[in-house]
Amino acid sequence: MAEGYPSIPDDLPGQFRAAMRRLAASVTVVVAKGDNGPVGMAATSVTSLTVDPPAVLVCVNRATALHALLVPTAPLSVNLLSRDQQEVSAAFGGGRPHEERFSVGNWREGDDGLPTLGGAQANLSCVIDAMLAYGTHSIVIARVLKAQVRDEVAPLIYQDGAYL
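User: That's the sequence. What structure does it adopt?
Assistant: Structure tokens below.
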């Protein structure tokens, strides 16, 4: 326990996990450049930060393969999935090995050399501005350099272990 903070009950982590499962979130696939090609993971902890400059927050577990690639000024692709892209979400959520994930979905090379997902709700091309370690994760601040938006609004939403 840190000085000045109240003690945490033993059952709080489980209660917190159950509470957060009730928080509905859009599903994204975040992609960075690796030595042997792109590396991507599904994420629901992505949110807008500011419009001036355009930026998003992406929270990434430090134990993931993606995390090792995240350094300031590195390019990052953030793809907001459409309702019909559940198979992409499952593949990037751990349903397929890293080397097979980009075989699922309509991926094409973006301006920064990173894959972007065709048919997604939106594609953001970013660079990492800053990172802050917190607990098991890093909070990544990514400056948006380009945004493409699909006309139809039909996001893939995840809540309590299922798609809505």
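The chain is about 10% helix and 45% strand.
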